[in-house]
Each structure stands twice: as C-alpha cells, then as structure tokens.
Amino acid sequence: MADFDVIVIGAGPAGYVAAIRATQLGLKTACVEKWIDASNKPVYGGTCLNVGCIPSKALLDSSHKFAEASHDFDVHGIKVSKVGIDVPAMIARKEKVVKQLTGGIAGLFRANKVEGISGTGKLLKDKQVEVTDHEGKTSVYSADNVILAAGSVPIEIPPTPLDHNVIVDSTGALEFQEVPKRLGVIGAGVIGLELGSVWARLGAEVVVLEAVDAFLPMIDQQITKEAKKIFTKQGLDIRLGAKVIGSALKKGKAKGVTVTYKDSEGEKKEDFDKLIVCVGRRPLSDKLLADDTGVEINERGFVTVDDHCATGVPGVYAVGDLVRGPMLAHKGSEEGVMVAEIIAGQKASMNYDLVPSVIYTHPEIAAVGKTEEQLKAEGIEYNTGVFPFAASGRALAANDSDGMVKMLADAKTDRVLGCHIIGPSAADLAQTVVVAMEFSSSAEDIGMTVFSHPALCEAVHEAALAVNGHAIHIANRKKR
Ligand code: FAD
Ligand code: AMP
Fold it and tell me: Is 453 a catalytic residue?
C-alpha cells in the first residue's frame, strides 16, 4: 500500500487548495513545500501569498491611500496639511498581512489533516516522491496520485542581471526601504504596471520600457486606450517599442544603473536609482522530475497536461503556473480543486473560457471572455454596450469616475461573450458578469436583473442594457 493517496508538490494557491480539497474528500494527503522562514518553519501559500498577489495588493492599497491623501481629499473639502510616507512601516504592514495569511494556511492544513512535509520534492518513477529536507536528508514516499504544483519564478534577461539591490525582480520591488527618485520598470505587463504604480504614487519618477509596440495587447483595445491615457496622467512614462538591451551599474560613490534600450529612433540611455525587471515568469519545472518518470515538459518548461490537468502518466497531474494557461492564482486553485475531485472519483471539469483577469492599478482593469478584436478575428457578429463611469452616480459621489464597462454579446443570440472594465472595483464588477456568463446569460437577462442603487454595479446593468439600445442613463447609439 502506498504511503499516501495523494502527494502534492508545492503549496502555492494551486497546491495547497488541491491538498485541502483532497483531504475533504477523504484522501490521505501530504503537501511538500520547500519554502521555509528564518527559523526553518515551512511557509505555505507560494508566490501568491508571499511575494505575489497579496503583498503587491497590500502595497497598492497603502500607496493608493497615500495618493488620495496627497491629491484627492481637497475636492471633498478635507484639508490635510502635510502627508508623509514611512516606507519601512508600509513594508512592515505588508509583511504582517503576508504572515497572517501564510499562518492561516498552516492552520487550514492542521484543521483538514493535510500532512505538511518540509523540503524539496522530486517526482521519481512509479509515483514515488523524493523529499530532500533543509539539512540535505532524503526520504522517499509513495503515492497513488501525485499533483505537481511547483509554480513559477521571475524570468531573468541577460541585459539586466539582477544584483538584488539596484536591479531587482518583482520580489525585490516589494522590499524597497525608500522611494527611489527615478525608477525604471522593464515590461509593461500586469506586474510591471502594478509595481510601477505603487512607487509612482509614492513620488518616484517611473519610466516603463516595453519592447513591444502595443500596450497590453491581450486586453480589449478600447479599454487599453483609456488605460494608457489614465496611467500617463498619473505620471507613468510608458515607452512602447523600447527594448532593453544592456545595463551598467554605476561604480564608486555613484549609485544606480544606466540602462540602454533601443527604439525606432535608435539606441538610448536612461539613468535610474532602481530598476525592476518584470518581463514575465517561467514554470519551475527544472529538477522537479527524475529522467524516467514519463512526464513530458514542453520546450518552454511547462508540464504537458490535458484539459483535466492529467499528464500522460496515469495518476500524475500538474496544476497552476506549471502548466499552460494564464499565470493566475485563481486559475491554479480551480485546477487544484478539479484534480482533487477527479482523483476522488468525481466527474469534474473547469471552464477555461471564463477565467477572469485583473490588473490592480487604479482604476482597476478586469476582463472576462472575448475582446472585440478577438470577435472580429473570429468573424463572430456582436453587439456592444458601453457605459462610462462618468455617468454613474455612485462613481461621481466617490469622485472616482474614470473608465467604463464594455459588454459584448452575440448579435444573433444576445449571449454575453465578453466584458471588459476599467474603473473603480472593476475586479468585483467583472465577477458578477463571470457568474452570469457561467449560466450562459444574455445581455437582456442582465438587463432584466434588479441592481442596487446607487452602486458601481449599475454600470454593468447599464452596459448590458446598452447592448440592445435600452440604456437609461446614457444616450444609446441605437434605439429599439
Ligand atoms: P506558486 O504560487 O509559485 O507556488 C509554488 C510553490 O511550490 C512555492 O511555494 C514553491 O516554494 C513550491 N515549490 C516549487 N518547487 C518545489 C519543489 N520541488 N518541492 C517543494 N516545493 C516546491 N495572480 C493573480 O491571480 N492575481 C494577482 O493579483 C496576482 N498578482 C501577482 C503579483 C506579483 C508581483 C506576482 C509575482 C504574481 C502575481 N500573480 C497574481 C500570479 C500568482 O502569484 C501565481 O499565478 C500563483 O501564485 C501561481 O500559483 P501556483 O500554486 O501554481 O505556484
Ligand atoms: P508579462 O508577460 O505580462 O509579465 O509582461 C512582460 C513584458 O515584458 C512583455 O510585454 C514583454 O514584451 C516585455 N519585455 C520582455 N523583454 C523585454 C526587454 N528586453 N525590454 C523591454 N520589455 C521587455
């Protein structure tokens, strides 16, 4: 008999969720995690809780409050004489939030009887898992099923080797102890924009260098146009078509780095006090598998899986950032649940078409389903409904009225095909549409639903009504 029904390697949002769901379903489950704290205690929660979603949002929230107090209170008649920022205190608060949450996972493991095994896991042949602890001692466990959930790490590029002081990755950018005067960010992706926003709000001059000419090409272009305008107004100097090709750390007493980049006009140089390299993440599949496991890894390092996260080897699954699809915590968690249920004998699946994605700038950008560009490319006829937050009573009351809700619905069936939002609380608003889309809602269904007043979600209601020319609080492009 095997030691465990299930062994999960990695306790990020994909792995820890899989482990908890598996024990809920009566499976004897262990979760191997290599992350430890200063006192050698295992740390659960992976990238998301420790150096990803949660700490970045803690800093985004703190810096947003600072920006509001600095510039936005006046309009409410609130007089603030001098707003200051204590960066070490802000960072310490972020760490407190992280600790509370990672400790929470340890508590959930105890409550659900997930056996935490501290060390680095490696899959061997025949669903054996070798674990090397922090003193180098090796143990081997057997399992009927193994779930690989080792996650991802930041990509490093040769022109900007990290020195973890001046040139840092996203993890280092969550640790600055003072506001850099001039900050360079390489990559105008989700993480670059979020981290650039944090430090710009606190007073850094931020230059974002993006190799590609298009801004956020995966997002609906009507939304990105608005985003670029707003971010530029906020002080982010976003330079598209600017490929970083070199860097030189300053020597002697001078601090900082000179970055060389190439754009359509030729080579250019910029000096920065700090540089954040945010050029994407890669799956952490190296050293995860012995040579003879039979599990396939593709040329980009992703473990090859089917729609149910099964590898080609029976009983071996892989989930989260380690496999294809968007590198998002909630996508990995849902995969973890699905796999645990499949192992327990249930018929489980996941709707990959409806994984929402969010950029937590201010305003937030949130999207689900198809963009207008995708619908055009696929030759699908559609109707569009757009509602600007400038016409939302609640947004105006909050003095937070930049942005819009855009809804796309099939021209023949009225079924909602996509929703794209830039605006206050976009993540939560888009989620209401995800639920509707999961139930194959039409725009009319959403239009016929009663929404609270005054609330930001009324913008979703009005965008749905606008799809068929029935919006009340804006002039419709077509009347019916
Ligand atoms: P991870 O979270 O990377 O966890 C993998 C775990 O496995 C780690 O704990 C690691 O130590 C452990 N591990 C690896 N190899 C081994 C081994 N051999 N043995 C034992 N343990 C091992 N996503 C969102 O959805 N929303 C956001 O707002 C968001 N913000 C982000 C902000 C930043 C700055 C970053 C960097 C990422 C952000 N992400 C966000 C992405 C999100 O963090 C990842 O998609 C998510 O953490 C992936 O989950 P995972 O469980 O697959 O892997
Ligand atoms: P994401 O994959 O969303 O995290 O975004 C990473 C971004 O970094 C992409 O938009 C890339 O085009 C960009 N990028 C990658 N390498 C470079 C480089 N050398 N210079 C500037 N931008 C880069």
Answer: yes
Protein fold of 4-154+282-353: FAD/NAD(P)-binding domain (3.50.50)
Nearest to 186 by CA among 164, 217, 224, 155: 155
CB atoms within 10 A of CB 457: 20
Distance 464 CA to ligand 1 centre (A): 35
Give distance in angstroms: CA of 369 to centre of ligand 2.
Answer: 23
Tokens representing 470 are 């029935």
Could you report the per-residue pLDDT of 113-156, keeping only the tens digit for each? Answer: 999 999 999 999 999 999 999 999 999 999 999 999 999 999 99
Give nearest CA residue, ligand 1 atom 33. 52
Closest approach atom of ligand 2 to CA 243: 20
Burial class (CB in 10 A: 0-12, 13-18, 19+), 474: middle
Residue nearest to atom 45 of ligand 1 (CA): 328
Nearest CA owner, ligand 1 atom 8? 46
CATH of 363-467, one of 3.40.630.10, 2.60.120.10, 3.30.390.30, 3.30.565.10: 3.30.390.30
Q: Which amino acid is at 236?
A: L
